[in-house]
Amino acid sequence: MKPLTHCSHYQDQDSEDKECWRYVNWVDSVVKMHTGPTIEKFRVCFPLDFSHTPFIDRWVQFALKKWVQDLVLDFSAQSHKLLYLGNGFSKASGFSKFRALKDLSLNSIGVTRGDIGFVLSSCPCLEQLKVSNCPNLTSVTIVGSHFALKLKSLAIECWHSMDSIEILDANLVSFSYSGNPLKLVLSNVPLLVEVSISERDSILTDDYRGLIFTQLSGCLSQLHTLGLDLNGMVDMEVFSVQTLPNIKHLELEVLGEDILILEQINCFMKACSYLEKLVLKMQFIFPEVNLKEASNTCSHHHLEVVEIVGYRGRQSAVKILMFLMETAVSLKKVVINPVRQLIRGESVDESDEVVEEEEARQHALHELRREVPAAISFGCL
């Protein structure tokens, strides 16, 4: 059975209500016409509000009764209205109806810790859970021994009032968190090999530099993939990185104007001696600066692929790439991607962004490419 999927975005704020009801009626009609016994995927993506809750509950019940495997509810909008599910999950008739759900994604919904607990206890086949922009979710606790969990991937994005995330005795393989600094406990997660942490705060202390590694101390040695946001540490003293023997894939969010960024990248390369792929997600906010040279550098013998995301034709970006090409003696491929990752809350002129991306692309193709040895494959997206 093909997935039931529809995603729309309104442009004219004056017609918001009209567009919402048109969308609701459209989904309602599709749901009523569907006569098949099952659906694989059900996705609702539209900025709905409180008045549409009864309809959404009905759609959720419909999807669960049809043994849906992949359920996506995305109500994010510029107005940031928070929508609450009524009893869409709890009213689904029969516990067995939850047994098919494998992938659940919730965005801009007023779920609580209790709601997440209900989902975990009622969906024994759930493998992937993603929760975004749910300010009523102040904490998450997952204890694998309490449920017959098959959960392999957990992604949480919350920039509001979340206090803690605790994951104990679970078989998670992948975990990611984006939000303000919080209490993070990962204990007895033997299968966890992929972690991404992006913690930022308006007020940072010296302790912040080591906070991430303290939080991950119980599983760092087993990780194969690690993603970290270093933007909150701009121009601070370079912090030491403990040995990460199994890291093969490293992603770092960095600020191109951080004068210490070469030194920090050097520390990570020393710590990840078996690193094979490095992805640098770059931001450029301030005027150009002269980067401080890295000290005590040494050759890296396993790094084969370097990707720079958000590339701009600045000297700092060129200097970073030159440093990596000099240090990584086994480098085989360089990938340049001028499409940058927007900072949370950032508003941009789309046309200006497209122009910047094209200028960066042309700089990479005609200027940067000349700096890359012929033996190294060069690609620009």
From TrEMBL:
Q: Specify the At1g61320/AtMIF1 LRR domain's residue ranges.
A: 32-355
User: Which Gene3D superfamilies does its entry note?
Assistant: Ribonuclease Inhibitor (3.80.10.10)
Report the InterPro entries cross-referenced here.
Answer: At1g61320/At1g61330-like (IPR053772), LRR_At1g61320_AtMIF1 (IPR055357), LRR_dom_sf (IPR032675)
Q: Which Pfam families has this protein been placed in?
A: LRR_At1g61320_AtMIF1
Q: What is this protein called?
A: F-box/LRR-repeat protein At5g02700
Species: Prunus avium
Q: What is the lineage of its organism?
A: Eukaryota, Viridiplantae, Streptophyta, Embryophyta, Tracheophyta
What is the primary gene name for this protein? LOC110754095
